[in-house]
Specification:
By secondary structure, the chain is α+β, with helices and mostly antiparallel strands. The chain has helices at residues 2-28, 67-72, 104-120, and strands at residues 32-38, 55-61, 78-82, 88-93. The protein has a four-stranded mixed beta sheet with strand order 2-1-3-4, with helices on one face.
């Protein structure tokens, strides 16, 4: 009887730890994705945005993208902030100078403001009717 009780407690603890780990993973995961798009010939103007919090950073070469994606990028480098639904939530590009005028801190501030807006206005689930 005691061994059975110990096994039950051990199983419950494992389940609790699993739930806590999954909850933490969901809460700590990146809420946004940042695409840093540039051409290989303009790599000297890459902006180091690694380490931005609450965002997953992806560096991409424009040359490696599909033709339809390349047509949408008007100048390099370009930085696009996407939400979980892949909706653009911010964009900066190099323009005619082919160099970004935004800083890593400004991008982090933008993401922090997006998160603050989400906390202040939690989205309601829309009716499916």
């Amino acid at each position: 009887m005691i061994n059975c009780l110990k096994l039950l407690i051990k199983t419950k603890m494992k389940n609790l730890l699993t739930i806590l780990a999954l909850t933490c993973a969901c809460l700590c995961s990146a809420q946004y994705e940042i695409l840093h798009i540039n051409s290989s010939w303009n790599s000297r103007h890459d902006l180091d945005i690694r380490g931005i919090k609450n965002a997953k950073v992806k560096y991409m070469l424009l040359d490696d993208q599909t033709p339809s994606f390349r047509q949408q990028i008007k100048s390099v480098p370009t930085i696009i902030v996407l939400d979980n639904n892949k909706k653009p939530r911010g964009m900066w590009n190099g323009g005619i100078a082919l160099k970004l005028k935004v800083t890593k801190e400004e991008i982090q501030d933008h993401i922090d403001k997006l998160i603050a807006q989400e906390s202040a206005n939690p989205s309601r689930r829309r009716s499916t009717n």
